[in-house]
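Example 4.3 (complexes with small molecules)
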Amino acid sequence: MIRPCEASDLHAIYAIINDAAQAYKGVIPEDRWHDPYMSLEELEREIAQGVGFWGCEEGGELIGVIGLQHVQDVSLIRHAYVRTGRQRQGVSTRLLAHLRTLTAHPMLVGTWADAVWAIRFYQKHGFRLVCPEEKDRLLRKYWSIPERQVETSVVLADERWFGDEIVDTLVKRGEELLARPFETIQFTANAEADALLNDLDHYPHAYVIACLMDRQIKAERAWLIPYLIQERVGSFAFAVLRDLSLDRVHSLMREPEPLHWLLNAMAKTLFLAIQRIGDQYSGDASRIWRGTPSSATLVRRFLEFHGAGPKIATMAANILVRDFKIPVSDKYSIDISPDRHVRRVFVRLGLARKGASNEELTYVARELHPTYPGIFDLSLWEIGKSWCHSRSSECDQCYLQQYCPTAGTRTHGATGT
Ligand code: SF4
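Answer. The structure with iron/sulfur cluster bound is encoded below.
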């Protein structure tokens, strides 16, 4: 039976700690060994400072104890010991499993660097060693121990802690990338096409139409369509486009060669987009995003276009906010656009499961950073493009190496997982 310890258990706890701690004798640095390993006064002081003990009782006798201390935003595992003679019978495992149900906070445990059996135990239960610099920082932040003990200890953390660190780091990097000044966006490999798409002052409808064309073909091809239409018509001025009939739009998209394999559907989408911009926004598509709208308003306005589902609408809003730096009053509805890089890195970082649908990834991002879920796009895309390739990973270059659960553990397969 696992139960909370009471004041009357003090001497039993003291006895178990000092019995089990004999294992440290001759293993940990000599100057850190005391006999008894922990005095009664020290134990009482620890309890007074907030260490709560749970014990495993059998036959009316405590055979193992484990301490839990909540400090700031983490929970520390303190003083986990099992009587000699009752070890290797699963007592520690049961105590640890129970402790994990008692906190929603990330869990950290510190132990002697030389106590390899203890390190292995926690590793077996999903804890991972933090890097030496982080270990020093954590020991100084959450523990009150002498410097010499900091030097001779290690810290292991559970997946919640690593997950929190990953999310914080990604958000911070996303904010850095977001704060960069506007740079011409490379949508295609064609500089003239990109110039048209980047010219929101004169051709905001080109951007809207390109977003709407981005369906079931490669993005680079979809984003070329406004430029190719311009070549075929001789102009991309809105007044010129407004005069085109549906039949004319259809033939422009069809000849000399089709611009999209969904020819009928996309010709209709393009024609209706021009009509909507004319009717609803007086021919000026920049009115869709002008005036610092809320992110929900912005997404909803794109959703009102024929052929625009949530994926296109959120992508359109995301690029405007993230890359064009269009101001919005909030970013709650700016979701991620899970392309292959974003998906791959999300999964490898352990933030999403392999095979997760785009909707699931969207909700993962919302759960992790509700005020601006799309912030992950920037940092995940950068990692995916730079180091976390589908067939190989350059983990030693990646700034998340120390937190990533799959860093350097395998040669990533060609499946893009
Ligand atoms: S550490 Fe390696 S596996 Fe993890 S995200 Fe970075 S590159 Fe990918």
